[in-house]
Design a protein that fits this description.
This protein is α/β, with parallel strands linked by helices. It has helices at 43-51, 85-95, 114-120, 143-162, 177-182, 197-200, 202-218, 242-252, 288-296, 311-317, 328-332, 336-341, 363-371, and strands at 12-13, 19-20, 24-26, 58-60, 64-65, 101-107, 124-125, 139-140, 167-172, 223-228, 232-234, 237-240, 259-262, 302-305, 323-326. It has one domain (3-371): TIM Barrel (Alpha-Beta Barrel), CATH 3.20.20.70. The strands form four sheets. It has an eight-stranded parallel beta barrel with strand order 3-4-6-9-10-13-14-15, surrounded by five helices. It is globular. The structure holds flavin mononucleotide.
């Protein structure tokens, strides 16, 4: 290995669950392989993760919904009863087969539950607003239903730990339900869950409390992380800005979290250097990720992600965070880290064309890309 890459292989201690042996992360990615009836992981999920078990020490599943029939996508993972634990234990074992940490990302898509809406006719949201970008109407969650979602996040966390996962990540990013509650654009409630900035934080805080309680009751050493999108700004529409995020992060870190994961490429921001994108609002002179890293200081490790596409970019990303996490790179080259170790980083594939047989990519993932939905581009996945 070239000496300059040594920082990528420095271990880092987590408050719970031991240490990460290196600074590589694998981003959470829905790969459209779950059993369509139950949402359980299938053989395809297991093979996909076995192939990626050496990609990073911090391995994340794609978003797992915490209730039945609320998925954003067909074949998205779901976990809402004990019967599923056996199937999830096989997935945990595949992820841990080379000593990496298996982390399940838990999610409620809220208004983005398009597939659930297709199945049941309903998608749920903090407020029943007519969203111009949705082709269906949303149903407002009642106060009791919101508390039920909070409980179901905890139950999903507990089940993942029972299945042998090392921990969970709360999906508070990418415009899904937790972010919808935090957003002044999406949350127009006037109860405990909205009506002021403080109250718009309540859902994120209550979910985090519940997940920490449930996870640590199951395993005192459970790793619990939180994923956040640094800003919600689309032109004139500002759900929240980086100042707001810092306030939420401060509140969340009053609790015993183990890492903070920044989702810096979403909402179409799939361009170059997303991991070090400048904030869109405010008088900042540094990238959003660096502002957050400095703000968090040493309280917890910060995971950065977004268009990290080469060994040099992974190294560069460590200026902005403690772990460099990759999505598309994990799809196109599961041997990314091994190639750096073997001094062969110039052979890392960022194009899947011609070697897909070796990648164990689920067929549903290829189908979704062929249908052309708005996901980051994976070069060569779709025949042109
Ligand atoms: C196929 C695919 C599925 C994704 N699913 C999720 C998901 O389930 N949860 C999530 O937080 N982000 C999801 N993302 C976003 C990634 O985690 C990541 O933030 C994004 O791809 C940017 O990183 P990259 O440029 O290294 O791919 C997904 C991305 C891709 C490509």
């Amino acid at each position: 290995m070239q000496e300059k890459y040594a920082p990528l292989f420095e271990p880092i201690e987590l408050k719970h669950g031991g240490r990460l042996r290196n600074r590589f992360g694998m981003c959470p990615m829905v790969v459209f392989a779950a059993d369509p009836a139950t949402g359980n992981p299938t053989e395809e999920d297991i093979k996909y993760f076995e192939r990626r078990s050496k990609f990073a020490d911090l391995l994340l599943t794609g978003a797992i919904t915490v209730q039945e029939n609320i998925q954003g996508h067909p074949k998205q993972l779901a976990l809402y009863n004990d019967d599923a634990i056996e199937a999830y234990s096989k997935l945990a074992a595949a992820m841990k087969s080379n000593g990496s940490k298996a982390i399940g990302q838990i999610q409620h898509p809220g208004r983005e539950g398009a597939y659930g809406c297709y199945v049941t006719g309903k998608a749920y949201a903090p407020s029943a607003i007519e969203f111009p970008f949705l082709q269906y109407k949303v149903t407002e969650l009642t106060e009791d239903e919101v508390w039920q979602v909070v409980k179901d996040f905890g139950l999903a966390a507990q089940r993942l730990l029972k299945a042998g996962f090392d921990g969970v990540e709360i999906h508070g990013a990418n415009h899904y339900l937790i972010q919808q509650f935090f957003s002044s654009y999406s949350n127009q409630r006037e109860d405990y869950w909205g009506g002021s900035f403080e109250k718009r934080m309540n859902f994120a805080i209550e979910v985090t409390k519940e997940v920490l309680k449930a996870a640590r009751a199951e395993n005192p050493d459970a790793i619990v992380g939180y994923r956040i999108s640094p800003e919600e700004i689309h032109g004139e529409m500002v759900g929240y800005d980086l100042d707001d995020s810092l306030k939420l992060i401060d509140k969340l870190l009053e609790q015993d979290l183990d890492f903070l994961d920044l989702s810096s490429a979403a909402g179409g921001n799939f361009g170059k250097d997303a991991y070090k994108a400048m904030p869109q609002k405010g008088d900042y002179t540094e990238p959003a990720s660096l502002v957050i890293k400095n703000f968090v200081a040493v309280r917890v490790p910060v995971v950065v992600s977004g268009t990290i596409r080469s060994a040099n970019e992974a190294l560069d990303a460590l200026k902005y965070g403690d772990v460099a996490s990759m999505g598309v790179a994990a799809l196109s080259d599961p041997d990314f880290k091994e190639k750096i170790l073997a001094d062969k980083e110039d052979t890392i594939h960022m194009n899947v064309k011609g070697h897909t047989d070796d990648l164990e990519l689920p067929s549903g993932l290829v189908e979704v890309y062929t249908a052309g939905i708005g996901l980051p581009q994976v070069e060569g996945l779709v025949e042109k």
